[in-house]
Structure prediction request, 307 residues.
Amino acid sequence: MIVPRGYADKIVYSVNSNVTANAEQVLNNQADVFDPGDTLPASLLQQVKSQASDRYKPVPTNSTFYFWFGITQKPFNNLAARQAVLAALDLRALSRIDSGFLEEDCHLIPPGIDGGGDPATCPYHNPNSAPNMTKAKQLMQQSGMIGQPVTVYGEDRAPRRQWLDYFTSVLNSLGFKATEKVVNSGVYFTTIGAPTLKPQVGWGDWVQDFPHPWDFMQLFAGNAGSSLNYGYVDDPHYNSALNTLFQKDPKSVASQWAALDNYAVGKAYYAAYGHEQFPKFYSNRLNFSAGVMSVEYQTDMTSLQLK
Prediction:
């Protein structure tokens, strides 16, 4: 493999957790590239669209954002308790928190991958409509988990912190006694993946490593361990189907991958809520059309060119 030489002799990073300030600097040409791993704040999005339309574009990615459940312990070892949460989540609200960059969906496999699900098949409510609170309340009564304490893990940076706030509020509205555990983004996944922790519930995301449905579905494989399978799901049917389908051409068994995703959604092993668009946003010093947005690595530094 030949690595491109690139065009820039020097690239200077500035690390700042204030996403609004970062976006304003690019808008005002005081910085050259907005980190696509962050979300353009809703308060600035219309200004960016109107003042910088020639250097801004949302780029669809094969990614999924979700909440996972620790299914080996109370309260989410109870199927009805997990299903209640899926019925109560308003995916439109989660997308609004992300300035509309999320395509709402309950499935783990994104639409750009073979086997990507149809949002219309989501079992608890249409992702583009209001949550089914009547069903959610019925499931909570059935679960017997009202009043159970829950610690919800999430990251500290926007919009991940706001997603955590929303998810925690939904749990409390259902009758759980939920509190947040906010973890620094730099150590979040090593924290929740520590085999001694076994957290009850928390936030997760995945951007494709390679364009295959296994790359997403393996997150809940029984042999994935705590490093990826944070909820310790170990379902024999899921494991067997995953191993069988991986041996086949994904296009030829796309419907079976979709069926496995639907099976896991029905079991409420995860509460997926959308697939992300990355904001490609540059200053006017850069050649916007030459810049490449990599699915795996986001901004391709070798493609950045000064005009």
The chain has ten helices and nine strands. Residues 5 and 302 are 7 Å apart (CA to CA). The longest helix spans residues 160-174.
